Amino acid sequence: MHRKYAGTGAFVMLAAVALGAFGAHVLEPQIGEKAIGTFETGVHYHMIHGIGMLLAAFASGLGGDRRRLLWANRLFLLGIILFSGSLYLLAVTGWKWFGPITPLGGVSFIAGWLMFALAMLRKDN
């Protein structure tokens, strides 16, 4: 399981770096300073939780509760899609209705970190 999610985490990180470069070099002149700030927030959280995915994948090889670490990875990925994805779309399109989706991604991030913590703090680890 940890190899699959480590690979997925690596692709998530690749996408974060590519989107960050795209935002800085292509989008900024097109969408303006305020919107690029929104886009950069999406990239920031995307990257942090891509690293979280890698950490959870490696932690499963260190004796962490694999079931909870699997859920941590799933929740991190869902959070990236909902949180960062909604911010990317909001910045590029200006459609305000993407805004209410963002907190759902934040809740996914929080739940992912909770699963990660519980996986590593189990007494039988």
TrEMBL record:
The chain crosses the membrane at residues 47-63, 75-95, 101-121. The keyword Protease does not apply. The keyword tRNA processing does not apply. It comes from the Bacteria. Keywords: Membrane, Transmembrane, Transmembrane helix. It is found in: Membrane. Pfam families: DUF423. It is a multi-pass membrane protein. GO terms for cellular component: plasma membrane. PANTHER family: TRANSMEMBRANE PROTEIN 256. Belongs to the UPF0382 family. This is Uncharacterized membrane protein YgdD (TMEM256/DUF423 family). It comes from Fontibacillus phaseoli. The lineage of its organism: Bacteria, Bacillati, Bacillota, Bacilli, Bacillales.
